[in-house]
Design goal:
483 residues, D-Amino Acid Oxidase, Chain A, domain 2, Arc Repressor Mutant, subunit A, 22 strands, 22% strand, globular, binds flavin-adenine dinucleotide
């Protein structure tokens, strides 16, 4: 007997989508996640664009899952209550060569199943995005944007609601297989299971090696971004991209569901899959290239920088490969191995999960969980309510009357709901991703201390143990004076 039927390694968007989709079946499922929350790696460090599916090779899994993910995103956002806008996207060009390249992209997209693609001239481009510089564009009306944190957290919390257990702070360090049972050792304990799913993102090669499936080459591609103040949000109604090359999607000016603007990315290969710092030279380079496309910001609009790292599977010549999703019956039976889940992994997460289940179903008939509930309600943002609704909420619960984050107008009631979410949230970033507190112009200058106090009170955490994001990222390292 094993502890679980399925152990999923990695609780990002893909691992959490697999957990949620698998909970539609009668299985005992657990997710082992090395971090203290579910979107502290790539799923929380991206652009949040729901891609149209035109940028990927014909016949690839990337094309297939991206188009499917795009198609179902509206229904998913209804069920799981995360922000999604089908706002469209433009790829802007200026030269004849770029025009030809966009025509090829359009053709590829149409074969892939991307819907509504159309070339637009300068006049139409400026109707769509008045502030952009460019002569023509490929317009994808079906592309969109999501809140990547809300999406990943909703997948995970809905999985929990349907019986999945999450073991956070459990980095997998070793896997054994014997007599049909996997024993997975983490830094905190041991778990046994009949199935293992490797959804470890940047850790996918390490887990694959632990399963005995060796030889993959996975490199990191690090992308740096600048976040601009939401003051400029109205000027970017949809993501504005340049013409992509085979290896680089090109600089883009994108918008978030909360109205901020993202400038990026730079792209360079890296072996260090844990370094998220952003170098000043990259910020300066981004300024120059973003100015050429969209010259409407100044450096005073910067509120923060961030970076993300894509796990790219490459062949022996360095060529980037398709997603690899496999069961190697000869080496690791009953282990689903996911390698190189880079972009468009966010858009594709649920179709990837359904494909994983297809592969499992070919080996073992899964039976439906009749009590599966696809609905998850998010935390209702106080700032989005009318004055009348706000008054009613405060009458019902006075904690709505106390604003903890002033620039994003986040109330104490929302912070408390975030702390007591079904997964548990003990870091500052966990609260930030669930409520938008600390995401405004002051970046937590006013609310950070108040949130840490609430974490202390609600979870009984000593202040010295409160971390910003990861293990060791302590907020308080000692007293500066006695009071
Ligand atoms: C800069 C950037 C921009 C992007 N933009 C887009 C976009 O606009 N649209 C889009 O569709 N896609 C985009 N992507 C891609 C997308 O973000 C990823 O493909 C997707 O988030 C991958 O999800 P994941 O769950 O596989 O990985 P992750 O989110 O990285 O999750 C993997 C999890 O596994 C855990 N883990 C790793 N090793 C271990 C271990 N040993 N034990 C336990 N847990 C472990 C990690 O802590 C992590 O939480 C972008 C990516 C980047 C970097």
């Amino acid at each position: 007997m094993s502890d679980f039927d399925v152990l999923i390694i990695g609780g990002g968007a893909v691992g959490s989508a697999i957990a949620r989709e698998l909970s539609r079946y009668r299985l005992s499922i657990a997710v082992l996640e090395k971090n203290l929350d579910v979107c502290l790696e790539t799923s929380g460090r991206n652009t949040g664009v729901v891609h149209g599916g035109f940028a990927y090779d014909i016949g690839s899994l990337k094309a297939r899952f991206c188009c499917e993910g795009n198609r179902i995103m509206g229904d998913l956002s209804e069920e799981l209550d995360f922000d999604f806008k089908r706002c469209g996207k433009v790829l802007v060009g200026n030269t004849e060569e770029e025009y030809e390249s966009l025509l090829r992209t359009k053709k590829q997209g149409e074969i892939n199943g991307s819907v509504g693609l159309v070339m637009v001239d300068r006049a139409r481009l400026h109707e769509l995005v008045p502030s952009v510089e460019g002569e023509f564009a490929l317009y994808s009306p079906n592309s969109g944007i999501i809140d990547p944190f809300g999406y990943t957290i909703a997948l995970a919390e809905n999985a929990v609601k349907n019986g999945v257990r999450y073991f956070l702070d459990n980095e997998v360090v070793h896997i054994d297989y014997s007599a049909g049972i996997y024993t997975v050792t983490t830094k905190r304990g041991r778990f046994t299971s009949r199935w293992v799913v490797n959804a470890a993102g940047l850790g996918c090669k390490k887990i694959s090696d632990m399963l005995g499936i060796t030889g993959y080459r996975v490199i990191g591609s690090k992308d740096d971004y600048i976040i601009l103040d939401s003051r400029l949000g109205k000027l970017v109604p949809m993501p504005i991209y340049t013409v992509p090359s085979n290896t680089y999607m090109g600089i883009h000016v994108s918008c978030t569901t909360d109205g901020n603007i993202l400038l990026g990315p730079t792209a360079h290969d890296t072996d260090d899959l844990e370094f998220y710092g952003v170098e000043k030279s990259n910020v300066d380079a981004l300024y120059e290239s973003a100015m050429a496309l969209w010259p409407h910001f100044t450096k005073a609009d910067y509120i923060r920088t961030y970076s993300g790292i894509l796990p790219k599977l490459i062949d022996e010549n360095g060529k980037i490969q398709d997603f690899r999703i496999e069961i190697r019956d000869d080496i690791a039976p009953h282990a689903v191995n996911l390698i190189g889940i880079e972009s468009p992994g966010l858009t594709s997460a649920v179709p990837i999960a359904r494909y994983v289940i297809e592969l499992m179903n070919e080996r073992e008939k899964l039976s439906a969980n009749e009590s599966f509930n696809p609905i998850k309600k998010g935390i209702r943002p106080f700032r989005s309510l009318s004055p009348e609704e706000q008054r009613e909420m405060i009458e019902e619960n006075p904690d709505y009357g106390e604003l903890i984050c002033r620039c994003q107008k986040v109330s104490k009631a929302e912070i408390l709901q975030a702390i007591h979410n079904p997964l548990g949230a003990s870091t500052m970033v966990s609260i930030k991703y669930r409520t938008r507190s600390m995401m405004g112009r002051c970046q937590g200058g006013y609310c950070q201390m108040r949130i840490s106090k609430l974490l202390e009170e609600e979870l009984g955490l000593p202040e010295k143990d409160i971390v910003y994001e990861r293990e060791g990222s302590y907020l308080f390292t000692g007293k500066v004076r006695e009071v």
